[in-house]
Amino acid sequence: MPIFSHPTWDIVLFLCLMAMGFFIGVSRGKKNIVVALIALYMDLVIFPILPIETLPVSGKNYFIVGIFFAIFILLSFLLRRVLKSTGEEGWWRIFVLSFLLAAFIFAAFFVIAPKEIIVQNTWGFSPLTIKIFLNSSYAKYWLILPLLGILFF
């Protein structure tokens, strides 16, 4: 097979990442792989919202990739801290996370809802709900705030 006899850099990188994940999983546990997967999902949600293209830097492509991986590493460390629960969750932390969960469910509904329901307001949403969840300047925050809530509450 030419893939293994003359591998390209991307195949070698994939195999190295796979081996690294395997050895981390074996030595430190499956939890660390799960944390990395969740951090990557979070990064994929956060990253497109950041105004990186407005930054005046040379070598922008490398800079963007570097920022992506820096956020991924930061989220991985923060999630490891979060998952080391002490069992002392205060009621106010649960309240904040519950609020963010409800808001995220609303935001997700408005993303997947048929446009005619929203445009014609056939379900009778209040003006406040429409303003908070459908306004484009607020909508992106409902994707980020639950992630921050997970990390810091």
Number of strands: 0
- Fraction in helix: over 70%
Largest sheet: none
**Number of H/I helices:** 9
Secondary-structure class: mainly alpha
String of helices and strands: HHHHHHHHH
Q: Which overall shape is indicated by the principal axes computed on the Cα atoms?
A: extended
- The overall average pLDDT, rounded, is 78
Indicate the multimeric state: single chain
Quickly count the domains: 2
Which labels suit this protein?
single chain, 153 residues, mainly alpha
Task: Describe this entry's structure for a reader.
With 153 residues, this protein is mainly alpha-helical. It has 2 domains: 1-84, no CATH class; 89-153. Helices cover 76% and strands 0% of the residues. It is built from 9 helices and no strands. It has helices spanning 2-5, 9-28, 30-46, 60-83, 91-112, 115-120, 127-134, 136-139, 141-152. Helix 3 (30-46) crosses helix 4 and helix 5 (91-112) packs antiparallel against helix 9. The longest helix is centred in the middle third of the chain and has 24 residues, at 60-83. The chain is extended, with a radius of gyration of 20 Å. It starts with a helix and ends with a helix.
